[in-house]
Amino acid sequence: MPKVSDLFFKTAVVWFILGIGAGLQMAISGDHGSFPAHAHINLLGWVTSAIFGGYYALNPAKAERKIAMIHYGLYNVGLVIMLPALYLMLHEGYTALEPVVAAGSLMVAAAVLIFALVVFSSAGVRSASALSAATR
């Protein structure tokens, strides 16, 4: 498995554990005010990271490109900035953290655009004719 796939999958599991923890905290306390943060942790952290890992596993030539690791790093730095700030903003009422959430969100958005560039680029993709020629 390509390194970036392995990293995305491992990081996804960490986000999944954190998302479950946030859900348990809400259930135990009876305070569900931070449910949007819980949803973001699970969807952006767990699910989307696992999807990125799957894409790179299915496209190893693209996974070996430097831009794939840039995507991984920027996406996860953005999540690490955004998600705890969002949780504290919603759970504790620290509205002053809104610019931090915005900064992390912009980093995540930039990483998604990088992923789109990876997906739509033809670099690292072998044409069908090249594949059939290689198997002869």
UniProtKB/TrEMBL annotation:
Keywords, in A-Z order: Membrane, Transmembrane, Transmembrane helix
Membrane-crossing residue ranges in chain numbering: 7-28, 40-58, 70-90, 102-120
Gene3D superfamilies: Cytochrome c oxidase-like, subunit I domain
Domain of life assignment: Bacteria
Name under which the protein is recorded: Cbb3-type cytochrome c oxidase subunit I
Species whose genome carries this gene: Mesorhizobium newzealandense
